[in-house]
Amino acid sequence: DVKIGAQISSVWHGLFRGFTADWWRVNNPRNGDRWKNAGLLTLDLSSARLRNLTRALAPAIWRIGGTPEDDVVYVVGNPPECSTNEMINQSLRYPGPLCLTMSRWAEIIDFVKYTQVKLAFGLNGLYQREHPSQSFNSTNAREFLKYTANQGYPVYAFELSNEDNHGQIDPKILADDFGTIRNYINEFWPYDDGRRPLLFGPDVGQHFETSEDIWLASFLDEAASFLNVSTVHTYCNKYTTSVCSSGKVNASGLSTCILPELDFMRIVKKHAPHLNVMAGEAGPHSHGGLDGCTNRFVNSFWYLDVLGSLSAHGVVAFARSTLIGGWYEMVDKTTFQPNPDYFAALLWGELMGTVQLNVTISNSRSLHAYASCTTDGVTLLLLNPDQTETIVTVSGLKMYSRPDAPEQEEYHVRAHDNNPFSNECEILLTSGEWKVLQSADDGTPPEIFPVTRALQPISVPPMSYAFIHFPRSTC
């Protein structure tokens, strides 16, 4: 049974569910086979399929960054790393600079404008940094920010460097560097009129041992006044490896996936209590994911559970690895077809609200449930990872008379042919049949209609999830 209670937290005005992009090259020996041409320098941003699939997820934060962001050089102001001769061979060389030309930057911005996502762009924070105790050379970043401002490009936020809490940079030095970027943002966007980009950071990795607790605390003590949002990167390798090897979802293991974020929030609350927390890069498994698993239906249990649990704990935004690229992508890099997690993201955005409600579960060890207020009622998310059907009775709803609306709208989703490792998912129709969810040739997602019922207990099939909307309920 599920009881819906009082309001407990809120997330950012429709931007909670976001996604990432990365810079990996196809010839990178570490991750090239996982990314192929989905890295930012080679991804086909003109693809109608990709553009329309992405636009359907807006509003959302699109975070561009990752490990290679600290190899990116901006081709403005004649940086020596990106001279003409260097750039001719850059796609054939590894390692080497990733040269972002201003024509490619314009293509990225055009994609942002069409899709209506909010761009969070990670700046190279290691540029010509010769020692962890030395500041980076900010000249190239300054020229890039100045160019971006002069072009009037819509950038929602900037970040600086990637996962530097593992010894790459002294925390106080990095704090000074964030102060430099904050000054540049204020200089080039002098009016705080809604167009000035925010500053996110420090994009730390998830291992919060004693030494890294100290690193993060030292950074926040110095840099909190420069930041708008604090960001952390997390992956859930142990849980995901178990699921991928067994095909069974461990409901208790799911609950461990948010522990790094909670550790991070504990440190932020102590040292920078005014800052909101964002999962700036989060995925089911690091190093690009696990092919045949983190891009299959079984991964939707991890995805929806972290969306539900982190929003309930007050994390204001979540950038999932990735929109496209790697083996945890929501859109297949080869076919540009949506994977099952794409539809999980689509339904979350359409049905869940920004105010989260307390949920109490009884008589079930495996059921996970989350609820939120919407503009027209209350939505309940139910995850049933069991091999058997679950019957859920809902209490605590505040119902009111609304004759023009059904009492209960149900969206049930399962794996195609009940195969948890399928790359397709199905939705339940009013007829009782299941239909595979597919996008149109141009990438437009299908219209998804609920099964409507009178208020009654909910039957959640085995290894499936359901969004239940109550239009006659109020918060």
Characterization of this structure:
27% of the residues lie in helices and 25% in strands. With 475 residues, the protein is α/β, with parallel strands linked by helices. The strands form five sheets. Strands 1, 12, 13, 14, 16, 18, 19, 20, 21 and 23 form a ten-stranded mixed β-sheet that branches. An eight-stranded parallel beta barrel has the order 2-3-6-7-8-9-10-11, surrounded by four helices. It has a two-stranded parallel ribbon with strand order 4-5. The chain is globular, with a radius of gyration of 22 Å. Residues 85-94 have low confidence and may be disordered.
SSE blueprint and pairings:
Layout: E1 2-10, E2 17-21, H1 32-35, H2 48-55, E3 61-64, E4 72-75, H3 84-89, E5 98-101, H4 102-115, E6 118-123, H5 139-151, E7 157-160, H6 171-188, E8 198-204, H7 210-223, E9 229-235, H8 237-246, H9 251-254, H10 259-271, E10 276-283, H11 299-312, E11 317-320, H12 340-351, E12 355-361, E13 368-374, E14 377-384, E15 390-392, E16 394-395, E17 398-399, E18 408-415, E19 425-428, E20 434-436, E21 451-453, E22 458-460, E23 464-470, E24 473-474
Parallel strand pairs: 1-16, 2-3, 2-11, 3-6, 4-5, 6-7, 7-8, 8-9, 9-10, 10-11
Antiparallel strand pairs: 1-12, 12-13, 13-14, 14-23, 15-22, 17-24, 18-19, 18-21, 18-23, 19-20
Supply the key terms:
12 helices; alpha/beta; 475 residues; 10-stranded mixed β-sheet; 8-stranded parallel β-barrel
